[in-house]
Request: fold
Amino acid sequence: MNTERNKGRLAYMTEPGSLEIRDYDLPTDIEPGAALLEVLQTNVCGSEVHIFQGKHPLFRCGGLGHEMVGKVLALGEALSTDSAGTPVAVGDRVVPIYHAVCGHCENCVRGIPNACVLSYHHFAKTHLRPHFHGGTFATHYYLHADQPFFRVPENVSDAAASAANCALSQVLHGLDRANLTLGQTFVIQGAGGLGLSAAAVAKERGARVIVIDRVAERLQLAKAFGADHLVNFDQVTELADRVKLVQQIAGAEGADVVM
Reply:
C-alpha cells in the first residue's frame, strides 16, 4: 500500500487562537465494534469558535470539530449494523455522534445519557492514539465502539448529513420537548446554524415561523429554510416594538414557542 495513503492529517489547537497541522499514521488495528472513516464534510459549529477564542471552561487545547459525515474505510470485528440496526459496509456514508455513552453510570441508568459522566472521554484528545478521534477537522475519523452512529441514506447530501449532529439533532429534540405542533407560532431569536435548522423543522411541522436577527444575509437564509416572517432588529430596534410586531403576526397572546 502507498505509504502516503497510510497517513492522515488533522488540525490541532495548541492553545486558544493557535492551530497547527499534524500528520499521523492511520490506525490499522481497528478494535471490535469500531470503524475508521474518511471525513467527507465537516462543519464549523459555534462551539468551535468559542473554544478557539478560549471561552470554553474545559477545553484549552486538542482537536476541534464534531459535525461531520464520513465514508467507512474499515470496520472492526462484529460491526455490521449502525446504531439503528441498519446494515453498514465499507464505502457507506455515516454520521457519528461525538458523545460516547457508557450505558452504566448513574445518569445513563436514570435515562439521561446526554449527561453520561464519560461522554467526553474521547473528545479533543487527538494527541493520543489513535489520534483521529474526538475531532473532525481532519482527513479521517476513528469511530469508537461506544459511539452511536447512523448510516446516511443515498438521497441525503453530504451538506445535509453533516449538520445532523449537532445542529439538527438539538432542535429536533428541543422542539419535541416543547411539543411544537401544527398551526402554532414559533419565534426564533438568531438565525445561526441552530436557528436555521429550527426554521426548517418547524416549517415541516406546520408552524408559523418568525425569525429575528440583525444580519441581512442570515435572514435571507432563514427565508430559504422556511421562515414565514423576518424581523431585522437593526430596523426594529426597540424590544417593545418587536413584541408588538410578533403579536400582530401571532395574535395578542404572542408566540406559542420561542427559541
